[in-house]
């Protein structure tokens, strides 16, 4: 069943896209030729941005620590596999000369972090 789930444009991804666009940056989406198919690719800066959901990728925040109520063992394995796969993809991208940035869902929800996030992404 999971193989039938297609990538969708999420609210956090749209927020990052608006932020980049407002700063005058242009980007490509989900380049199939790059490991992990990053959500946003800034080719001129050789930079990629992954917009991660805190629960699905086991982020160390309140959203990432939400405990599933059923099939706890299955979810723990799935999240651990997601983290491991993400690390492999990031390593492969860095080895190929790309700068990798991860934006977490919880960072976008907080308004005070948005300015810091913009600065961090623009430094790249």
Q: What radius of gyration results from the CA coordinates?
A: 15 Å
Helix fraction, binned, reads 40-55%
Q: What's the rounded overall pLDDT mean?
A: 83
What is the CATH topology? Endonuclease, Chain A
The major beta sheet can be summarized as: 4 strands, mixed
Question: In terms of quaternary structure, what is this?
Answer: single chain
Number of helix segments?
Answer: 4
Report on this structure.
By secondary structure, the chain is an alpha+beta fold. It has one domain (10-123): VSR Endonuclease (Endonuclease, Chain A, 3-Layer(aba) Sandwich), CATH 3.40.960. The chain is 44% helix and 14% strand. It contains 4 helices and 4 strands, in the order αβββαβαα. The protein has a 4-stranded mixed beta sheet, sandwiched between helices. The longest helix is centred in the C-terminal third of the chain and has 24 residues, at 72-95. The N and C termini lie far apart (37 Å). The mean pLDDT is 83.
